[in-house]
């Protein structure tokens, strides 16, 4: 098992080096690597490309990667600023979720899916990938951009929606296993739990500063990591995604005087375990099933791209951002990943159409690869659309100095 994990890490390292040489995001490379190997791959001598025995460990390491990615992202932002822009965040999140969910539901019904299957498709389309979005912001060094706080707020709002959606769908799909009162209670606890961390981030820095006033880096990192894993695990028991629990803890600690110290200690773990996550995500996709729902997934992808650009522009402009920054919002939150898979797995567990599995795999794969690329090339897409909508006037070129006149003045002098 140790050899299998070591072999997987060696492959991840090789592919990461290649992506770095090409100056491209490593995310799509790692996802494709995971697809190429995995349960359907052959065994070549001592090299077992199926990774069956080690799949659980690799998956667990990948989950840790998501926690570090979201925890670091939370550290990069300020709770006080997010609270001050609360109205914009609620408005932006509502627009994003409603538009994408409505488009997904309409698409599911248009392609003749039954109602429950169409609702699953709607939830899948509305659920952005927090892990990929976090990685994109870090890779493109946009955590300090003005639109990044809005993006983070929309991610949190999207997860609140996801908690509500999964609670309601669980009750509907599993035939009264959860009462209406139980659903309402679960949703209320989830929202209250999230709000608690915003309050801690605003009112609790003094206590956190004393708690983390530890001279030894060894003890300091043990305490921080203990908080990270405990809070993340506890969050899941309250039906709040463990990754969002890590994000909320990062937000709370971002207001302390130890935030920069924590960042420096977390970065190596974020990069290492984050790479394992995207590889493990690829392992879960069987490429042999993708073509079965290719056309269906492609239609959903086009719909998602349009919905994200429109909602990003509306949210960004409402928040007072420029058209260019607003375009960054829509393209950055484009990727779909772990949360979309969670939504689909709920439908599969309830015995809905088998077509949902290859459809969701193809849909997630395309946007997991296309999302980081679109975010990186946002300037190109903005310039293209700017020629059509003329959001900003082209910068006038300065008048050229007449050569003859300057030559004449030079001669006279």
Describe the overall structure.
This protein has 413 residues and is mostly helical. The chain has a single domain, classed as Na+/H+ antiporter like fold. The protein contains 19 helices and two strands. The protein has a two-stranded antiparallel sheet. A hairpin with a 2-residue loop joins β1 and β2. α1 packs across α2, α5 runs antiparallel to α6 and α5 packs antiparallel against α14. The longest helix has 28 residues.
* Major sheet summary line: 2 strands, antiparallel
Strand content: under 5%
The third-level CATH topology is Na+/H+ antiporter like fold
Q: Encode the helix/strand succession as letters.
A: HHEEHHHHHHHHHHHHHHHHH
Write the layout of secondary structure elements.
Blueprint: H1 2-21, H2 26-36, E1 43-44, E2 47-48, H3 55-75, H4 79-84, H5 86-110, H6 115-126, H7 130-139, H8 146-173, H9 180-203, H10 205-211, H11 217-237, H12 242-253, H13 259-283, H14 294-318, H15 323-332, H16 338-349, H17 356-376, H18 378-389, H19 403-412
Helix pairs in contact: 1-2, 2-13, 2-17, 3-7, 3-12, 3-13, 5-6, 5-8, 5-14, 6-8, 6-16, 8-9, 8-15, 8-16, 9-12, 11-12, 14-15, 14-17, 15-18, 16-17
Brief synopsis:
By secondary structure, the protein is mostly helical.
Q: What keywords describe this structure?
A:
413 residues, mainly alpha, Na+/H+ antiporter like fold, two-stranded antiparallel sheet, 19 helices
């Amino acid at each position: 098992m140790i050899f299998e994990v070591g072999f997987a890490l060696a492959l991840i390292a090789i592919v990461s080096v290649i992506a770095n040489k090409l100056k491209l995001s490593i995310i799509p490379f790692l996802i494709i690597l995971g697809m190429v190997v995995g349960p359907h791959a052959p065994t070549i001598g001592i090299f077992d490309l199926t990774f069956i025995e080690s799949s659980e460990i690799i998956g667990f390491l990948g989950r840790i990667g998501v926690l570090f990615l979201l925890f670091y992202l939370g550290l990069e932002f300020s709770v006080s600023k997010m609270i001050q822009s609360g109205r914009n965040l609620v408005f932006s999140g509502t627009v994003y979720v409603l538009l994408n969910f409505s488009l997904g539901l309409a698409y599911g019904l248009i392609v003749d899916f039954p109602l429950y299957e169409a609702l699953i498709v709607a939830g899948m389309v509305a659920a952005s990938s927090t892990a990929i979005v976090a990685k994109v912001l870090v890779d493109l060094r946009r955590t300090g951009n003005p639109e990044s706080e809005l993006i983070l707020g929309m991610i949190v709002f999207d997860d609140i929606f996801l908690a509500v959606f999964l609670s309601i769908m669980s009750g509907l799909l599993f035939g009264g296993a959860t009462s209406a009162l139980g659903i309402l209670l679960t949703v209320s606890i989830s929202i209250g739990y999230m709000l608690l961390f915003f309050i801690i981030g605003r009112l609790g820095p003094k206590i956190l500063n004393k708690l983390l006033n530890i001279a030894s880096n060894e003890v300091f990192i043990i305490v921080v990591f203990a908080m990270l894993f405990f809070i993340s695990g506890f969050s899941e028991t309250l039906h709040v995604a463990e990754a969002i629990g890590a994000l909320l803890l990062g937000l709370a600690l971002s207001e302390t005087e130890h935030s920069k110290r924590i960042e420096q200690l977390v970065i190596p773990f974020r990069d290492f375990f984050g790479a394992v996550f995207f590889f493990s995500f690829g392992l879960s996709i069987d490429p042999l099933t993708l073509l079965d729902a290719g056309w269906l997934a492609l239609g959903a992808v086009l719909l998602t791209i349009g919905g994200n650009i429109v909602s990003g522009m509306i949210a960004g402009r409402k928040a007072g951002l420029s058209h260019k920054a607003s375009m960054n919002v829509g393209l950055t939150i484009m990727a779909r990943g772990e949360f979309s898979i969670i939504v689909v797995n709920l439908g599969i567990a309830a015995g809905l159409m088998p077509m949902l599995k290859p459809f969701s795999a193809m849909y997630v794969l395309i946007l997991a690869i296309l999302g980081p690329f679109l975010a990186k090339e946002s300037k190109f897409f903005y310039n293209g659309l700017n020629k059509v909508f003329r959001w900003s006037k082209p910068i006038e070129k300065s008048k050229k100095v007449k050569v003859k006149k300057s030559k004449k003045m030079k001669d006279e002098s």
